[in-house]
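User: Can you recover a sequence for this backbone? Please restate the input before giving your answer.

Assistant: Of course. Working from this structure:
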């Protein structure tokens, strides 16, 4: 009798463990909004919550909790979770945050669990180490050289063909704009160089790293010196907006979208939102004609490299728990799949990383996005 009771107790305990819910956490750096016309029938406050809800429905017994990283505190939210030994099961954020996590000790090798071939190979290769894919690219975020076409019309200037759009030509244009009291561009030096200034170094052929060897920088080069001297020339000649050491990317967006400067590095999402908003706030009478073009390149070079980065999704590996690892891999794929990418392109202005997937409505249908 006692043996029967013991066996039953073991079975009940085993059944209880089997039925225990699998708790998963997802950390996001922001809210993925629906298109305005969808809010009333989706049943979820945003697209991220919907993806989590759909995943729980498809995987009974799984509970997904979303954590939003406090972007004002940088990596503090993630650092606290790591220090507590409770890393998020799925973390989706700008790629720069993951430098020390792209390894077998932290990240799931996604190619073992899902079809990674749906993603654009050149982007996927960035996150492939030792033959293992440690992240899924959820969005490509591109920065471009925004220019005010109305200002060019005011001085009778026509943009040249790409081969002649050189740094020397930009100095000539800057002089013409200065004669009309128009700063030609933004140098945003507050807090250091910043990625939006680095394009001027790239314009002269400078590089930060030697291929994928991130162990040391190679920025100390003649090409980088030329780029830095060019920035200095734009400032000392009075071509760039004054007091560059006091300007940051927020100032660049504000000054460009209020018609106070001819050009600035930024993203199409900035112009699409802020130009009509500046009209609404009465800061400008009407939105100017603008477009995005390549940054001028040094003579002898064909192009200045395109600036961009990715938002990526990384799944955390749990040693000895393949049941959980498979769920985490599936959840990681869900947060880097077509549904979330649809909203990132049509609402947030990002670019898809999935082969052949190119939405064309909403933000993705605007002229600035296409440019």
């Amino acid at each position: 009798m006692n043996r029967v009771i013991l066996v039953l107790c073991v079975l009940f305990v085993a059944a209880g463990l089997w039925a225990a819910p699998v708790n998963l956490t997802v950390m996001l750096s922001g809210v993925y909004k629906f298109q305005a016309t969808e809010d009333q029938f989706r049943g979820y406050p945003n697209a991220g919550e919907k993806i989590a809800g759909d995943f729980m429905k498809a995987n009974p017994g799984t509970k997904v909790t979303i954590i939003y990283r406090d972007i004002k505190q940088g990596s503090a939210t993630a650092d606290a979770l790591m220090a507590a030994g409770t890393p998020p099961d799925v973390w989706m954020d700008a790629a720069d945050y993951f430098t020390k996590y792209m390894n077998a000790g932290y990240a799931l090798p996604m190619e073992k669990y899902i079809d990674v071939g749906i993603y654009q190979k050149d982007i996927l290769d960035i996150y492939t180490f030792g033959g293992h894919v440690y992240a899924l690219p959820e969005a490509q975020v591109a920065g471009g050289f925004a220019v005010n076409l109305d200002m060019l019309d005011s001085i009778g200037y026509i943009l040249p063909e790409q081969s002649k759009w050189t740094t020397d030509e930009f100095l000539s244009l800057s002089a013409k704009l200065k004669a009309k009291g128009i700063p030609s561009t933004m140098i945003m030096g507050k807090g250091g160089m910043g990625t939006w200034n680095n394009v001027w170094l790239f314009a002269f052929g400078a590089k930060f790293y030697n291929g994928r060897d991130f162990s040391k920088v190679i920025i100390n080069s003649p090409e980088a010196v030329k780029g830095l001297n060019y920035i200095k020339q734009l400032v000392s000649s009075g071509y760039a907006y004054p007091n560059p050491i006091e300007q940051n990317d927020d100032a660049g967006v504000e000054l460009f979208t209020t018609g106070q400067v001819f050009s600035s590095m930024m993203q199409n999402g900035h112009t699409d939102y802020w130009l009509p908003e500046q009209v609404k706030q009465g800061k400008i009478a009407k939105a100017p004609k603008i477009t995005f073009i390549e940054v001028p390149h040094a003579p002898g070079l064909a192009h200045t490299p395109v600036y961009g980065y990715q938002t990526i999704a990384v799944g955390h590996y749990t040693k000895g728990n393949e049941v959980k690892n498979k769920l985490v891999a599936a959840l990681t794929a869900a947060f880097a799949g077509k549904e979330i990418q649809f909203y990132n392109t049509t609402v947030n202005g990002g670019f898809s990383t999935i082969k052949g997937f190119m939405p064309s409505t909403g933000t993705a249908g605007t002229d600035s996005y296409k440019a």
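That completes the design. DSSP finds 14 helices and nine strands in the chain.
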